[in-house]
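Example record

Each entry pairs one chain with its bound ligand, pyridoxal-5'-phosphate.
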Amino acid sequence: MKIQTKAVHAGDRKRPQQQIPVSTPVHFAASWICADQAEQDRIFAHEQHGYAYSRYANPTNDALEELVAALENGHGALACSSGMMALQHALTAALLERPRRVLCARDIYGATLKLLYDVMGPFGLRTELVDANDTAAVEAAMDRSRPGALLVETISNPLLRVADLAALARLCRTRNIALIVDNTFATPLLARPMELGAHLVVHSSTKYLGGHGDTLGGLIVSDEAHYETIRRFSRVAGPVMGPMEAYLTMRGIKTFPLRMERQCRNAAALAAWLRKHPKVERVFYPDDPAHPDAAVIRRILPEGLYGGMVSFEVKGAGREQIFGFLDRLRLCVRATSLGDVHTMVLYPWIASHRDVPPEQKAAMGLRENLVRFSVGIEAVEDIMADIEQALGG
Ligand SMILES: *Cc1c(COP(=O)(O)O)cnc(C)c1O
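Structure tokens for the complex follow.
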């Protein structure tokens, strides 16, 4: 055999071994060889589960999808290249046989609004915003504008409002409206929206599920009714996650409950400490008995698990004072993301909520002196010490 031929054939394409590796290998194959043409024919006809081309299915992705569907108690899942891709794909599948109108929580991730208005709007999607924490307002909006889908986050950003998913699901189910829940902040440790009646759950696995700040990804968890459409569209549109990202995400999820428990504990301790701090005006954390959604929180979130996000207002601070405070932080990482093992901080006023019109910020209750911390798994005393020295300066 000549070197040119060896370069593309030698050592490769061995038959799978009988021993099973303890972790799922990264299958970097774009396509698969079948035993014979008859087998390939059965795979293409969906009469047999198997692999032909990675846009359709890949064993590494399959393993992650099975894992996340199990965590959320869904029928099946699809791993996507990002959380935004997962949201777009979920919306497309949900609206296939429904009116192209979305009722969306006003308090939602900024890019989600841009997806609805700037990307899907020109293709005929109409979006109406609603206060998703006001169930009566949601019901009135549904009966007025008859949407095809309701899109909400379990825990919102950055003011950490908690949606009454069970009540919203009841409203959706009597009207054939698809309930799509972005469960990124809550994670399946705190809430499993499918169990409360959601049709589709979406995650940015870039955040808590991955947990290490090294992998962009998204997941859609689906009920049985929408799953076939999600897979059928995916085989054509190809929103899929790469196998390396699927591997890293799966590896991250192994320790996700451990990390999340620790993050919740650290966040609760930090919130309690901040409430007593003389330089802090208001603290937003769902363990607060005076939280506007306290009754919903008691029903939806497990005792003691209120998430790893803490937002607070610095007394009398404007933009310059907030810049100074954040620039003095030495341990907490100033970067756009959340859910990582290390503590991260973001200034919503100039970042996530930069493009939100002032009157909408006012309606949400978002002020210029608010910072948002994603609490990590460090020793909480070290996080407090860093915030203390930065506030003191
Ligand atoms: C980050 C995030 C997204 C988008 O996910 P990407 O992985 O960045 O595409 C969607 N929803 C929420 C709540 C997020 O925090």
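The pocket of pyridoxal-5'-phosphate is lined by residues 82-84, 109, 111, 153, 157, 182, 184-185, 204, 206-207, 216, 218 (CB under 6 Å).
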